[in-house]
Amino acid sequence: MVAQEDRKEQINERKEQINERKEQIKERKEQIKEKRKEVVAKYVDNSFESKAKAIADKIENITKEEKATLKSEVEAVNVQLENGSITKEQADTKKKDLAQARATIIENRVAVAQEELKELVQQKVNGKIASSENPLNQKDSLIYNGKKYSISVKVKDSTYIDADGIKRVYKKKYKEYSERRTTSQFVFALGLNNVVTDGSVENSDFKFAGSRFYEWGVSYNTRIDKSHNLLHLKYGASLVYNDLRPTENRVFAVNGNQTTLQTSTIDLKSARFRNVYLVAPLHLEFDFTKKKEKEGKTYFNTHNSFRLGVGGYAGIRIKSKQKIEYEIDDVDYDEKAKGDFNASNFIYGLSAYVGYKETSLYIKYDLNPIFQDNVVKQNNVSLGIRFDFN
């Protein structure tokens, strides 16, 4: 009987110890939860929302401060008007000038705050700043019964330990990016320029290295097939500069309806003839950028692989100009002559390009002659590098 009583007492003591331990664990969990709330609250002031509100308050305060200052300045002008030291017209002028000055100050101060807000938004987009609900990678600790417990809150794709000591994984959702069916590009091209005479550029009257072309403009690229990425229609507008530098100290001269090269009576340092055109290019583009498929959706992008374009262009001549440079008695002369030089008013031709991503090898050939009535027909040809910045 005595042994049974002792056994019962031991069991009851054990139960009390277990219950006490449960209470301790419960108390520790509550403390960890409270500490976690403190950690989150600690970093709320550095969150995106709080910083954005601070900037908004700054803008509001700027407006209030400057309006209050303007009010004081206007009251001072009214005092001068009442004292008769200035006329009503002078008072009105002063008030107007003060209002304009304060408006400029407000605009400049607000612009600075707006730049801060812009930078804040960019940091938010880049993931460098957290929202108040999800502080980034903040850590703290709690001392309990002589032991240190780590607390962390993360929003990146990572494994972390929550307040209850449970290992969890936070996954951030990423969205696949697909271009619109029609995109725009800035186009820039440059390279060598010359003429084709009787079907050949051999023995040309123009320097190969010194004669160049430049082109810049904007283009639009439309995917023809809604469900396929290969075929695109590329169109837009460009300014084209075709330069020709004659050989053997020659310049262009107009004789009636003929424009021919003649030897200059002056020893020239440089001679250049330029035609400027506004053209509308049109190409059928083959873009070999592969489509992406994820979770049953298809995503299209362009200018990420090999590209081939074939087509042509048409446009009008804007101006023609000849520039010569020479030296006489150690004096440098620079002369420019502008006119039509009997150049063709319209331009049309064929063009093609092939390349990888935004860089391509570019070739163009004018189907119409440079000078409309010349006996010898000469057609412009260009070869260079083209950049399509998507």
Give the CA-CA distance, first to last residue. Answer: 94 Å
Query: Could you say which structural class the secondary elements and strand pairing correspond to?
Result: alpha+beta
Q: How many β-strands, per DSSP? A: 17
Largest sheet: 8 strands, antiparallel, barrel
- Taken from the alpha-carbon principal axes, the silhouette is flat
**Beta strand %:** 35-45%
In round numbers, the mean pLDDT is 81
Q: Helicity level, as a percent range?
A: 25-40%
Q: Element order, helices and strands?
A: HHHEEEEEEEEEEEEEEEEE
Which spans of ≥5 residues are poorly predicted at pLDDT below 50?
A: 132-145, 147-158, 160-164, 170-175
Radius of gyration: 39 Å
Number of DSSP helical runs: 3
Q: Walk across the major sheet and give the strand order.
A: 5-6-7-10-13-15-16-17
Protein name: Outer membrane protein beta-barrel domain-containing protein
Organism: Flavobacterium chungnamense
Region (Disordered): 1-31
Brief write-up:
This protein has 3 helices and 17 strands.
Which features characterize this protein?
390 residues, alpha+beta, two-stranded antiparallel ribbon, 17 strands
Describe the 3D structure:
This protein has helices at residues 2-42, 48-83, 88-125, and strands at residues 138-144, 147-153, 158-161, 167-170, 182-197, 212-223, 231-244, 250-255, 258-263, 268-287, 292-294, 297-299, 306-328, 331-339, 346-356, 359-366, 378-389. The strands form five sheets. An eight-stranded antiparallel β-barrel has the order 5-6-7-10-13-15-16-17. Strands 1-2 form a two-stranded antiparallel ribbon. The longest helix has 41 residues, at 2-42. Helix content is 29%, strand content 42%. It has 390 residues and is of the alpha+beta class. It is built from three helices and 17 strands. Helix 2 (48-83) packs antiparallel against helix 3 (88-125).
